[in-house]
Amino acid sequence: MSSADILQLTAGEPELTLQRDEMLIRFGEDHPALYLLCSGALDVRRDGELLARITDPGSVVGELSLLLGTPASADVSAAETTVVRRLDDAERLFAQVPAFGQHLAVTLARRLHRVTSLLGELHRQFADRPGTLGLVPGVVAELVGDDRPPAETGSDREPDGPY
Question: Of 37, 32, 99, 122, nearest to 72 (Cα)?
């Protein structure tokens, strides 16, 4: 199922028009809805840092909160005038149109692939670095579930410091 198919399938759902910098989703808040980008661009931020700019019509946001039943993991705001569709009953679409769930799974897999590729590159670049940067491979290993032993923290001056 393509993004165009998703937009056609959800044509009757309510649309929201957001102006530049208007918030769609706030970090830590409950958002049981799924949003589809119709036009414009959405910025995904965490602690004020831009993580992603979403520009492809049919792209989905809010999926982590919906699927995991957790509060929003990032802020999502309009980067420009943007139109989104709000799906309050995405569970119905999953049940009635299995290809919709597959589309979402592929979207999540692509995002995960980008993240794990970046983590692998960070691991490669910082594997032999001394000091704080040398901790990057341990952090990466923890994030991807590597079975290697975690990095040991501490210093010669304070081996048992409050790290």
Answer: 32
